[in-house]
């Protein structure tokens, strides 16, 4: 059977050319073509087949490549000529400068029997919205219309995971509302191509024109002609200045002077590096009594590492949203796949949020197959792979290598730390590479956590040739903390007996371009090599697609859920082999820091869940891991974790006293500028908080606190407000002389010390409150399994008698953000387990004595 095919070489790709031909044996025919005058990039004999299909129409009649060539030529895409200067070497070839998807669309439509003149390859997409996309449009229109204001823009957030189709759906929203002036703002210029193609290729948006870069100076020209426009601008572009007076660029004058119907802020999930977030992190470190010098170092390391380019870029990301507010508009739409901060800070009313998470996507995929038996191949969600999370508890000697002196917690950053471009733990890193590749086998030593349903298999490590994953993981992303670590790891991999078979791509450092420019070299390398490993410290971890990646290895201490899941979802990019039609159905996350991974997984499943009927952490996690299985690997054995194990994983081996200490950890109490502002939002909130604090203080005295201890928690809400306001005023006060600056710094330092003292009093009161929760649970003699059940009053005002405040007061403190209760469900479950164990021991002893 003759096949029609499309291929490219590394050289032709640089020139934007693809070759279209037909043959019985495609690979043989391509190799023969490398000996012709029309060959492009013949020297290295490298090529990638981009498309291949039988050259037969639906009516069973055959066709040839010249039929497609003629159609392309007629549509303004003539055959490419090979020249050498002014000399023409080959007048016509089978090479064309045309986008691949246009050529494929032409071929597929031709195969269906359509005549070339009937086929539009410029605007040819006709697919409809999926149900969830239609729901997003309907909900947004309803909210926009109900909340419309004459002088202030109405704001809406789409919490929609990667591959939801936010660009296409946002355009459908504009079309449905009849909006003529749409502005797209982003801090990621790399997404420009997607916004342009979605608008210019779908038949639904034919009435819109896409304006970008220099085209932004023509906004008024198109509006005068009654044309609908979509203008695209990056934040970096908007900041460009004309002269020393900070005048707006000429091409942006019309952008700022126009009243837009809709402003879309893309990639809104960033913000971990903003000034506000930096202050919040410093607040929390200060709460933990970390010195100012250490705070500065830790904040810079966490958020503004010079090597970690993507994290550094987050410094300006939320400023896109601030810039959007300077632009006059009727509506603003924020798009994000991981808007943790926006949702945690309640920046949007619940009615102003549309949710579509990974769980929603996989449920829809499953339900479609149930509703359409025998039609699984037509499932619109089929191309979206399921994710599996593998958590590895490595041997004790490797764990010890990752524990820095003076610290008590394993750190991947420290494990892969370098000195003079060599790993300080090079022997341990080498052993780890041998372990994950099967050169050595793990010995059995972790039976304490694997009592239940242990299933032994040959190997569960990703690159072990005896394991089930070895053949699947041909292309993966490894995420590290520093460029030096990536360089050192590349050297070890290239000399390793197993990993030397992989092409190692160093996507880090000054040698690698940024943004969209970093994508193509990686795609090219993956196309040229059957197995690759891409090492990154930030590049390619968000906003880009590498379809052939099937797994992500986390080799760094990622604390930001945005960063973690944006990176993890890189592996979920759909991929179908153009020749074999094989489709990626599963992808993988591999993490060697289980506690960290499970904390972030809990955050994702809880914070972004839209299921109102799922009220507890356990219920939400149960639903989440049904579609994202969590597999715990220790030694050669593997078990699937359930929700309870996820919630209590880092409490393994803890006793009652240790559990009590967990309830009062400082991380569970949040006293920052934001929460102080929440306390002082109104006279009512000030009075209520003061009343709650006074009652907790009184309860401490009732329980035997000394006068000195009471003085240490003598909270005055008024002082919090005064100091907070004074600090804000001092920070913005301008100084003209060194003496004025010195005086300002002294006053600021004094105000900050006073505020810190007042904050510490609040913290101690709230920790006292949390310390009473396990006592309350013990006294209820019930089987509470989550915080919600604990806070259901069942026995004669017992909560007030045990803590000093009412249950509604506790919930109010949670609502203000003063109490961070994310971890409490896990602690409560562990408490119940300990009680149950004690009960069983007591029964055993009683039976033995009777």
Which tags fit this structure?
9-stranded mixed beta sheet, Rossmann fold, alpha/beta, 4 domains, globular, 850 residues, single chain
Could you walk me through the main structural features you see in this protein, from its secondary elements to its overall organization?
- With 850 residues, this protein is an alpha/beta fold.
- It has four domains: 116 residues, no CATH class; 180 residues, Rossmann fold (3-Layer(aba) Sandwich); 270 residues, 3-Layer(aba) Sandwich (Rossmann fold), CATH 3.40.50; 139 residues, no CATH class.
- It contains 36 helices and 24 strands.
- It has a nine-stranded mixed beta sheet with strand order 17-24-23-14-22-21-18-20-19, sandwiched between helices.
- Helix 8 links the parallel strand 9 and strand 10.
- Helix 5 packs across helix 6.
- The protein is globular.
- 36% of the residues are buried.
- The C terminus is likely disordered.
């Amino acid at each position: 059977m003759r096949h029609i095919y499309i291929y490219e070489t590394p050289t032709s790709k640089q020139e934007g050319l693809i070759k279209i031909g037909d043959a019985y044996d495609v690979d043989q025919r391509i190799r023969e073509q490398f000996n012709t005058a029309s060959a492009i990039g013949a020297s290295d004999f490298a090529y990638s087949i981009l498309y291949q299909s039988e050259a037969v129409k639906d009516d069973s009649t055959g066709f040839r490549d010249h039929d497609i060539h003629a159609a392309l030529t007629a549509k303004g895409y003539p055959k490419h000529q090979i020249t050498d200067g002014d000399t023409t070497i080959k007048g016509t070839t089978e090479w064309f400068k045309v986008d691949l998807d246009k050529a494929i669309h032409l071929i597929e439509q031709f195969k269906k029997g359509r005549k070339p003149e009937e086929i539009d390859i410029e605007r040819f997409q006709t697919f409809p919205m999926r149900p969830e996309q239609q729901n997003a449009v309907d909900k947004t229109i309803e909210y926009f219309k109900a909340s419309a204001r004459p002088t202030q823009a109405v704001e809406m957030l789409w919490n929609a995971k990667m591959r939801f189709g936010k660009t296409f759906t946002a355009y459908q929203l504009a079309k449905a509302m009849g909006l003529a002036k749409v502005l797209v703002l982003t801090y990621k210029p790399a997404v420009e191509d997607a916004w342009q193609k979605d608008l210019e290729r779908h038949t639904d948006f034919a009435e819109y024109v896409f304006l970008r870069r220099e085209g932004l100076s023509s906004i008024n020209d198109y509006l005068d002609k009654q044309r609908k426009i979509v203008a695209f601008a990056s934040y970096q572009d908007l900041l460009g200045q004309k002269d020393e007076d900070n005048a707006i660029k000429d091409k942006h004058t019309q952008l700022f002077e126009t009243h837009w119907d809709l402003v879309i802020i893309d990639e809104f999930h960033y913000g971990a590096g903003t000034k506000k977030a930096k202050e919040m992190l410093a607040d929390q470190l200060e709460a933990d009594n970390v010195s100012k010098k250490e705070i500065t170092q830790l904040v810079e390391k966490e958020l503004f590492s010079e090597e970690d380019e993507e994290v550094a870029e987050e410094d300006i990301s939320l400023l896109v949203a601030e810039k959007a507010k300077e632009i006059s508009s009727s509506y603003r739409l924020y798009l994000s796949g991981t808007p943790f901060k926006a949702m945690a800070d309640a920046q949007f009313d619940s009615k102003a949020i549309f949710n579509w998470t990974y769980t929603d996507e996989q449920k829809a995929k499953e339900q479609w197959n149930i509703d359409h038996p025998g039609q699984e191949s037509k499932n619109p969600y089929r191309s979206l792979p399921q994710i599996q999370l593998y958590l590895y508890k490595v041997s004790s000697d490797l764990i010890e290598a990752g524990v820095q002196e003076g610290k008590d917690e394993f750190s991947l950053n420290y494990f892969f730390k370098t000195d003079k471009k060599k790993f300080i733990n090079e022997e341990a890193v080498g052993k780890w590479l041998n372990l994950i590749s099967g050169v050595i086998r793990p010995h059995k030593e972790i039976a304490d956590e694997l009592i239940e349903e242990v299933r032994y298999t040959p190997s569960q490590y990703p690159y072990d040739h005896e394991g089930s994953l070895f053949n699947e993981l041909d292309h993966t992303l490894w995420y590290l903390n520093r460029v030096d670590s990536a360089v050192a790891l590349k050297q070890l991999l290239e000399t390793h007996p197993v990993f030397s078979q992989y092409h190692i791509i160093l996507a880090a450092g000054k040698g690698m371009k940024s943004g969209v420019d970093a994508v193509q070299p990686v795609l090219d390398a993956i196309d040229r090599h059957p197995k690759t490993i891409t090492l990154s410290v930030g590049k390619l971890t968000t906003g880009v697609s590498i379809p052939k990646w099937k797994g992500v290895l986390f080799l760094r201490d990622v604390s930001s859920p945005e960063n973690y899941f944006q990176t993890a979802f890189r592996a979920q990019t759909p991929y179908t082999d153009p020749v074999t039609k094989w489709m990626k159905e599963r992808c993988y996350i591999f993490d060697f820091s289980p506690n960290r991974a499970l904390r972030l997984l809990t955050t994702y499943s809880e914070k972004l869940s839209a299921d109102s009927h799922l009220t507890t952490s356990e219920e939400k996690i149960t639903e989440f891991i049904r579609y994202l299985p969590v597999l715990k690997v220790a030694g050669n054995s593997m078990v699937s974790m359930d929700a309870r194990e996820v919630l209590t994983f880092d409490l393994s081996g803890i006793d009652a006293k240790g559990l009590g200490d967990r309830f009062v950890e400082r991380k569970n109490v949040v006293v920052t500028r934001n929460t102080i502002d929440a306390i002082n939002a109104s006279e009512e909130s000030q009075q209520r908080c003061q009343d709650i604090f006074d009652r907790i203080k009184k309860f401490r005295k009732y329980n035997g606190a000394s006068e000195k201890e009471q003085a240490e928690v003598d909270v005055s809400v008024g002082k919090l407000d005064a100091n907070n306001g004074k600090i804000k005023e001092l920070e913005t006060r301008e100084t003209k002389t060194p003496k004025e600056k010195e005086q300002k710094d002294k006053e600021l330092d004094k105000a900050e010390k006073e505020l810190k003292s007042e904050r510490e009093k609040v913290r101690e009161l709230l920790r006292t409150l949390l310390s009473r929760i396990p006592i309350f649970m013990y006294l209820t003699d019930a089987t509470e399994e989550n915080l919600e059940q604990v806070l259901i009053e069942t026995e004669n005002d017992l909560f007030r008698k045990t803590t000093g405040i009412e249950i509604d007061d506790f919930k109010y403190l949670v609502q203000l953000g003063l109490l961070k209760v994310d971890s409490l469900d896990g602690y409560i479950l562990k408490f119940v387990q300990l009680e149950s164990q004690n009960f069983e021991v007591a029964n055993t002893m009683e039976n033995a004595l009777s």
